[in-house]
Design brief:
Heat Shock Protein 90, six-stranded antiparallel β-sheet, 2 domains, Beta-Lactamase, 10 helices, rod-shaped, five-stranded mixed β-sheet
């Protein structure tokens, strides 16, 4: 009885069709005093809503699974939809459906607002993500697309200063020295810019088209020739006659070759020989390109780890660079539908090998595995 009295659900007890007890919840629904309800017939305030009225006399066995829909009528004529359930022994439960419906409507409205808020949050997250990707792309362009030309320019300036290309006047020497200092300042600025805000590098989309592999390789070798000359190194190009053409993005391939050859120059022996080789891969429809140096090589335990961002290889030049070049190479090559790995070169140093789709009639009509379309993202 005490629990029923404290409940927010309305209860009443009848005897011979008259109310003998009711709780405060029913009185609150009717906006009256509980004592005023005792002795009344529930029919005075429970109206037929089309499904009939409960048996207040308790002549029928109660069926708790089948509540009866009715209307609760107040003295002012206002109505509230209720469910009346017979509990047995003349006791009845009266549940306010109006409150449930109001709560349901409120829940629906709250759910709608929550969905709208979640959608807005997702859109904001996408906008932030797009901004972050654009920022990372800019850092990639600055750190890798600008550094290589800067290195080449600086190499040519140093070569001119040696007067191997001819004698210099005092003014020419002064201008070249100032140019060399400017290259150094700009290189430091680029490095500090990326170090101040390290972000995961995202490679740009690749656009595959048939092309001459040899032309791209020789172009990159010509860029880096002054650096090789400074160290007395030679770069030999040995391309298989059947593996001179492939399907690739020239800009992305130039970046890959510049990174790999740049590393080979740094890690190869002074006055040593570097090799760029190609052949038809054992895997059908692919061309294999190898960049080899004669340096210390890469330990087996590091051969996978060095392709991760911001990981620098061991050795005498370990501190140079940001550790992004090989990670970008892997993403670019995988976007071509190929793969890249490192092993031991025949000369005893490191050999970086990557694959590209061959320039064949089949490959020209069928995109390489992993791309699905000639224009694909090189990001991970």
């Amino acid at each position: 009885m005490a629990l029923a009295q404290a409940s927010s659900t309305a209860f009443l007890r009848c005897k011979s069709g008259r109310i003998t007890w009711t709780n405060q919840a029913l009185a609150a629904l009717l906006r009256t005093d509980p004592a005023a309800l005792v002795g009344q017939s529930p029919d005075a305030f429970v109206a037929d809503a089309g499904a009939g009225l409960p048996d207040w006399l308790g002549g029928e066995a109660p069926d708790p699974a089948a509540p009866l829909a009715c209307d609760l009528v107040r003295d002012d004529g206002s109505r509230t939809p209720v469910e009346v359930r017979a509990l047995g022994d003349g006791e009845f439960e009266i549940r306010d459906l109006g409150a449930s419906r109001r709560l349901s409507r409120e829940n629906v409205e709250l759910a709608r607002r929550l969905r709208d808020a979640q959608q807005e949050l997702a859109e904001q997250a996408e906008r932030l993500g797009a901004t972050a990707r654009e920022r990372d792309e800019l850092l990639t362009v600055v750190s890798h697309e600008l550094q290589t030309p800067l290195t080449v320019v600086a190499g040519f300036v140093r070569l001119l200063l040696t007067e191997q290309a001819g004698p210099l006047t005092d003014d020419q020497r002064k201008y070249l020295k100032e140019s060399a200092r400017s290259c150094e300042r700009l290189t430091r600025f680029v490095t500090h810019l990326v170090d101040a805000h390290p972000a995961a590098s995202e490679a740009r989309p690749v656009r595959l088209s048939p092309g001459c592999l040899e032309e791209t390789v020789r172009s990159v070798v010509d860029w880096l020739r002054p650096l090789a000359n400074e160290r007395g190194q030679q770069i030999e190009i040995e391309l298989d006659a059947e593996a001179r053409r492939a399907r690739f993005d020239p800009v992305r391939l130039e970046q890959v070759m510049a990174n790999l050859l740049g590393n080979a120059l740094k890690h190869g022996r002074p006055r040593g020989v570097l090799y760029v080789r190609s052949r038809v891969a054992e895997e059908h429809g692919l061309i294999e390109v190898a960049v080899c140096d004669d340096g210390e090589g890469v330990p087996p335990e590091d051969r996978e780890r060095i392709f991760e961002p911001y990981v620098r290889g061991e050795g005498r030049n370990r501190g140079a660079g940001l550790g992004l070049g090989l990670a970008i190479c892997r993403r670019a090559i995988e976007a071509h539908g190929g793969s890249i790995r490192v092993g031991e070169a025949p000369e005893g140093g490191a050999q970086f090998v990557f694959t590209l789709p061959a320039d064949t009639a089949d490959s020209a009509s069928t995109p390489p595995a992993g791309t699905g379309d000639p224009e694909v993202a090189a990001g991970g």
